Amino acid sequence: MDLGLHGKVAMVAAATQGIGLACARELAAEGCRVSVCSRSPVGGELGDGIRAYSCDVSDPAQIEAWLAATFKDLGAPEILVTNTGGPPAGLWEDMSDDQWATGVESTLMSAVRMARMVAPLMRARGWGRIVHLTSLAAKEPNRILAVSSTLRSGLMALTRLQASELARFGVTVNAVLPGHTMTDRQVHLAELRAERDGTTVEQALAAQAASVPMGRLAQPREIAAAVAFLCSDRASYVTGVNLLVDGGSVQGLA
Prior knowledge:
Blueprint (H helix, E strand, L loop, with lengths): L8 E4 L5 H12 L3 E6 L11 E5 L5 H14 L5 E4 L14 H29 L2 E6 L12 H21 L4 E8 L5 H14 L3 H10 L9 H11 L11 E4 L9
Parallel strand pairs: 1-2, 1-4, 2-3, 4-5, 5-6, 6-7
Helix pairs in contact: 1-7, 2-3, 3-4, 5-6
């Protein structure tokens, strides 16, 4: 299937590993010129068609610098995939004000700022795709992911608001809510569960996989495939959707 993305300029945040990197590679494979960013120095080859920049997405000035560098090197972005590392894990009453505030800046405000910066360019072009990467915790809050669950639910509302306001300009806004995916974050959470339950990390990962109706964890490329479709011409009438890609984990209807 031709997704109609050849030559498009895409920005993918926090995309030098895990789901973000898988999204960048999927878009590059479809012919996009991809700009990715990372807080830490990039080691190794990310793939053809991908350029990496240093940027902490919790810092507005660094986001502006990333956009300016992308514009200079590749052109005006037509696709934006917002993404961040997960905020600190813990129960809501155990998290400090600083941890909550850090989560707001990195998880919520980064998406607000990135979309706000690219939206005028997309409106002027009459075409654009914004996809927010969030989590199934947005629909099914997890008690040990209090900050993430709260903020990612907010991103669902932001997605709907942005979609309604940008639709008439040919810009779609959607969110992808990954389920349990084999990433460094998944391993970290398994370490926390293993310590709590007195088991091994391997046992914790196996138990997590067994809880999914498909009986396994997702691979990052499976999440990336959904993101690439939402960025495509084929998805031109899809906007305001918060799409679960979770192997059937979330059982609610809402």
